[in-house]
TrEMBL record:
Official protein name in the record: Uncharacterized protein
Superkingdom of the source species: Bacteria
Length: 127
């Protein structure tokens, strides 16, 4: 059995983390999963060119999917922290760095690590 190299491990982990967040928000429909797969394909090329960037892939895939969803569905993920005012999306920070988090800039707080949105709102997350 052939072992999976670090590049594939980082891509699989990024895919799993973003899918977990999508599932937490109940937006993991087939077309949305396809957006994740498209991003992973694009990021595979990117990280092949810059292997040191493998630890940044989860945040980049999350941002890619967030951008794709904005074009077709609207803002995602919606902030679970701010209960009043206009609904707004969380943002990934750092934009290019390890250990990405979903952040509410309006409240100035880290909400959850990418892949952990389900725990940020007691197991459910508004979509």
């Amino acid at each position: 059995m052939e072992s999976i190299g670090p590049l594939e491990q980082s891509l699989h982990a990024a895919r799993a983390r973003v899918l977990a967040d999508l599932a937490a928000g109940e937006v993991a429909a087939a077309d949305v999963v396809s957006m994740v797969e498209d991003s992973v394909v694009q990021r595979r090329w990117w990280v092949e060119q810059w292997p040191e960037g493998a630890e940044f892939v989860a945040g980049l895939v999350a941002q890619d999917v967030q951008d794709a969803l904005l074009e077709t569905y609207g803002r995602w993920p919606l902030c679970p922290v701010c209960g009043s005012g206009d609904p707004h999306a969380l943002e990934v920070e750092p934009e290019l760095g390890p250990d990405p988090y979903w952040v509410c800039h309006k409240a100035g707080v880290k909400v959850a690590a990418v892949g952990s949105l389900g725990t940020a709102a007691g197991g459910t997350f508004p979509s």
